[in-house]
UniProtKB/TrEMBL annotation:
InterPro entries: DYW_dom, E_motif, PPR_At4g14850-like_plant, PPR_rpt, TPR-like_helical_dom_sf. This is DYW domain-containing protein. One of its GO terms (biological process) is RNA modification. It comes from Aegilops tauschii subsp. strangulata. PROSITE patterns: PPR (PS51375). It comes from the Eukaryota. Pfam families: DYW_deaminase, E_motif, PPR, PPR_2. The keyword Repeat applies. Keywords: Repeat, Transit peptide. PPR repeats lie at residues 76-110, 178-212, 218-252, 319-353, 354-388, 389-423, 490-524, 525-555, 627-661. GO terms for molecular function: RNA binding; zinc ion binding. Residues 707-800 form the DYW domain.
């Protein structure tokens, strides 16, 4: 065993000779011990043999040897402790816990090493009850303070269960808890994604080291925290960690720089990246393949491929990862010819591209909207014998989702499953985002079930994605239920719930959640206030919105952005305070953006203010010359004022500038099929069009008898009233609602419709009447918010009525 371990100092040639001799002799000794019966009757021989087998790389045989034997009482304390330790070291958590339980039942005393390994097994297996029992035994035996490994593994056991408070208590109360124990808990927090806890523990070590028995953080401590920041997207905190490290007088090493560069690459802060590079050079740190790859990756992700190439050319040592970073950088920038040229250069340097190389290209194609080329490349590498992995498929799915091709995301997901590749947590997040984009509630529920089976639901990031999906798919109740079960809610999760409440018009609930967040110590950001102001806008709460807006910077330290200004303009304009909205725009810092002028134009259209509308439109035609919505809004307003020549002039201006009207569509899901209804025959007519229009005529006739009058003011064409009434029947949201009613008549399930533009007044009124007539719940998501129609009423209380051209 000693020869195999290479413990004696000797020449390399003598060491190789001894190892070869030991490898020949070891099987003979094993055979002799078994034939003579010593291996199963003599505990010390069995223990030494298990050690020997472990060094030979045959740990499974050694563990099996310890579990077997002649009779029940042949093992002594040494052998029992050895068995527990070997099982835990091999990652057989249940086996180690079972062996520890059995030895204690037999009255065998556990030593410190076995206790430490048993605690480690309990933590990794999530067996908190057994872990507390081992803790109790260690306390009674006096092992917590006596054995150097027990404090770290004990604290680690509690940290594995996310009970960082208990882990910290163990560290503070144990005299033997040195820096290794503290680092073990911090590493556990990082692995579980508890970055805030890791930062707090490291900060406590630095703060209390001089005044208490707390261990002082080492370079390894800060590097562990840095790696957690880089891995979990806490990029700003990473810079602060380096500052704390320098204040302590510690010199960063290559691992520090690599982690910091990953954070810079994630955030895209090129200025910080160049500072890190300069620091690296000033301190005489020679770049190896690892740090060199991190530098290339950072510059590539920050969009400076020229600097990435310069670093790459200057590296003495390059590995496959270095080449892959440069290939991925060019692919993400859309420079596919250069990326493929680099792949060929790799081959000339006798480096075979691996699946990571091809994944970089697949991601580049997909993120640049070239999903068909990405799929073609995936099939080509598969035919060449390179098996696409979960990253390959997730890149393809993510790229499709990024470019708005949500349906394509699910097509690729189906192919991924047919290929036998299991989705990862990242795949789940991307697909949930696609469900939110398409409002596919049933598909989202399927993914939720999948997350439960894979135990992903315990991850805060997955719960956040589920909250977002359910809210955007129209099931606010489910979103609230998921949100209520989240342990350790962070700002991103709360913002997702706030946004969901906002788009459903639940302004008072959103305000209550915001104040709960503030009282719990969560600091709001810009997204928080966008959601709050949107919630106020959805219900016309002017006073409350002004209070939030005025306190943003003064009380909460968040500077208002153009988006926040646009929310205020939209609210004021919709409520009819057009002059105040105009004054607000004029005193806004910087040049007002298109979103503010667009909000003002919408308000002018609602209240018929032509003069202000023309002023807003002039700015919009300059800022967004190809946005058809602005032209159509002004054309509608001109039609309302009987200014047909001006409307016709705008129509000619659109043609001259090559502006195409944004195609309107609505869709609903029946069973597992999505049925789309488009304006102007953008696709072949629905096969059941006659039945849909027949049911539409019947419903309209019935609601006319209870007071419905067609609002022809929603039609911006100079045509007779009868023609306008006919055109109102063609609005896509009406068609989708009627089809949903036909196909869900037996189930009586809510009819869910998604529309890509805003709903007009007439459609709003018709759907209200239909919900009462049919006794059905109808949920419609338009470009602005959700409308829940029940018993002839809408959740917006008829506030959200506006004009637009369908």
């Amino acid at each position: 065993g000693d020869l195999l371990h290479g413990e004696a100092e000797k020449s390399p040639e003598a060491e190789r000779t001894d190892i070869a001799a030991a490898r020949r002799l070891a099987p003979q000794l094993h055979s002799l011990a078994v034939r003579a019966g010593h291996a199963t009757r003599e505990p010390h021989v069995a223990c030494a043999l298990a050690d020997l087998l472990e060094r030979l790389g045959r740990g499974a045989s050694g563990r099996r040897l310890l579990a077997e034997g002649d009779g029940e009482d042949w093992k002594d304390a040494v052998l029992w402790n050895k068995q527990v330790a070997m099982l835990a070291e091999a990652g057989d958590w249940d086996g180690a816990i079972g062996a520890f339980r059995e030895m204690r039942a037999r009255g065998v005393a556990a030593d410190g090493y076995a206790c430490a390994r048993a605690l480690h097994a309990c933590g990794r297996a999530g067996r908190r009850r057994e872990g507390r029992a081992v803790h109790a035994h260690a306390l009674r035996a006096g092992l917590v303070d006596a054995h150097p490994l027990v404090p770290g593994f004990l604290a680690g056991m509690y940290a594995e269960g996310a009970d960082v408070a208990a882990a910290t208590t163990v560290l503070l109360r144990t005299t033997g808890a040195g820096v290794v124990a503290w680092n073990a808990v911090i590493a556990c927090c990082v692995r579980l994604g508890l970055v805030d806890d890791a930062l707090e523990l490291a900060g406590r070590m630095a703060r209390d080291a001089e005044t208490s028995a707390v261990a002082e953080p080492t370079l390894a401590t800060w590097n562990t925290v840095l790696s957690g920041c880089a891995r979990h997207g806490r990029d700003r905190e990473a810079l602060a960690v380096v500052g704390r490290m320098l204040e302590q007088g510690l010199s960063p090493d290559a691992a520090t720089v690599s982690s910091l560069l990953k954070s810079v690459a994630n955030s895209g802060f090129l200025g910080h990246g160049t500072e890190v590079h300069g620091f690296f050079l000033r301190h005489g740190l020679a770049p190896d393949a690892y740090t060199g790859t991190a530098l290339v990756d950072m510059y590539a992700k920050c969009g400076r491929l020229d600097l990435a190439q310069r670093v790459f050319d200057g590296l003495e040592h390059r590995n496959l990862a270095t080449w892959n970073s440069l290939v991925a950088g060019h692919a993400n920038a859309g420079q596919f010819d250069r990326a493929l040229e680099l792949v060929e250069t790799m081959k000339r340097h006798r480096l075979d591209p691996n699946v990571t190389t091809w994944n970089g290209l697949i991601t580049g194609y997909a993120m640049n909207g070239l999903s068909s080329q990405a799929m073609l490349l995936l099939r080509q590498i598969k035919a060449a014998g390179v098996a696409p992995n979960v990253v390959s498929w997730t890149s393809l799915i993510s790229g499709s989702c990024h470019s708005g091709d949500y349906q394509g995301s699910f097509t690729f997901f189906s192919e991924m499953q047919q290929d036998g590749v299991q989705p990862s947590l990242v795949t789940m997040l991307v697909l949930l985002r696609a469900c939110a984009g398409l409002a596919l509630l049933n598909k989202g529920k399927e993914l939720h079930c999948f997350a439960l089976r894979r135990a992903y639901d315990g991850e805060v990031v997955v719960s956040t994605a589920l909250v977002d999906m359910y809210a955007k798919a129209g099931s606010l109740t489910s979103a609230k239920r998921v949100f209520g079960r989240v342990q350790g809610k962070n700002l991103v999760c709360c913002n997702a719930m706030l946004t969901g409440l906002a788009v459903h018009g639940q302004a008072h609930e959103a305000a209550a959640l915001f104040h709960d967040m503030w009282r719990s110590g969560l600091k709001p950001d810009g997204i928080t206030f966008t959601a709050l102001l949107t919630a106020c806008r959805s219900m016309g709460l002017v006073t409350e919105a002004w209070e939030y807006f005025d306190n943003m910077e003064a009380k909460y330290g968040v500077a208002p952005t153009a988006e926040h200004h646009a929310c205020m303009v939209d609210l004021l304009a919709r409520r009819g305070y057009l002059d105040e909205a105009m004054a607000f725009i004029e005193r806004s810092p910087g040049e007002p953006g298109a979103s503010s002028w667009g909000a003002l134009l919408t308000g002018c259209a609602i209240h018929g203010n032509l003069d202000l509308a023309e002023s807003a439109a002039r700015h919009l035609f300059r800022l967004e010359p190809h946005n058809s919505a602005n032209y159509l809004a002004m054309m509608s307003l001109y039609e309302q004022h009987r200014m047909f020549d001006e409307a016709e002039s705008l129509k000619y201006a659109m043609k001259a500038r090559g502006v195409d009207a944004r195609p309107g569509w609505s869709w609903t899901q029946a069973g597992r099929s999505v049925h789309v209804f488009e304006v102007d025959g953008g696709s072949p007519p629905h096969p059941e069009t006659p039945e849909i229009y027949g049911e539409m005529s019947r419903l309209v006739s019935q609601i006319r008898m209870v007071g419905y009058v067609p609002d022809t003011g929603c039609i911006a064409y100079d045509v007779p009233e009868e023609e306008k009434e006919r055109l109102l029947l063609c609005h896509t949201e009406k068609l989708a609602v009627v089809y949903g009613l036909i196909r869900s008549d037996k189930s009586r399930a809510p009819v869910r419709v998604v529309k890509n533009t805003r709903m007009c007044r007439d459609c709003h009124e018709v759907i209200k009447h239909v919900s009462a007539l049919c006794g059905r719940q109808i949920i419609l998501r338009d470009a602005s918010r959700f409308h829940h129609f029940v018993d002839g009423k809408c959740s917006c209380d008829d506030y959200w009525l506006h004009s637009r051209v369908n």
